[in-house]
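User: Hey, my collaborator sent me this sequence without any context and asked if I could get a structure. I don't really work with proteins. Can you help?
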Amino acid sequence: MSGKLTASGKPILANDPHLGLSAPAIWYFAHLDAPGINVIGGTLPGVPAVVLGRTDKFAWSFTNTNPDVQDLYIEQIDSKNPGMYRGPDGLLPFKVRQEIIDVKGSPSITFLIKDTRHGPVISDSYARAKKAIDTDRYALALRWTALDVENQSVVGLLEMNRAKDLDSLKLALRKKLCAYAKRGDGG
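Assistant: No problem. I've predicted the 3D structure and written it out in structure-token form, which is a compact way to encode the shape of the chain:
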């Protein structure tokens, strides 16, 4: 709402991201004040920026209308070599990497991540998937726009938090929104 319509003369931005309530809450409030940045608003654990908020010059919000940004793929595992799966032109190797999560006061947790051309295999650790498919013959892979190499959402978000003029804010928003536009299927 324009500041011309408020008692204080300052604009008002109302926000409803259409996300469910939870306990503990998914959102927390943060104020980042450092050289080159002064932003305040709501963010999510692990995100190094304010997702919904304002700077001294700009404010922004969004409504989450449940965009289609995820797909599941059933990959057929090669029965002779379980390190391979069927691709469109023949067998492809699973890309395997080790991840380590350090836990304060406890031993680190080490596990393997398998990737396909569509994304990470989730059936190895998702119990419901193991009930739905034969995980000795098939793997369930997750394709999510947030995991795409070309996804610039976080870069756009960081740039929004540091925007000094309207042009730099618009450029940052283009990066933030391109994850949905690149899908090409309305997602």
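In plain terms: The domain at 3-66+148-181 is CATH 3.60.20.10 (Glutamine Phosphoribosylpyrophosphate, subunit 1, domain 1). You can pass these tokens on to your collaborator as they are.
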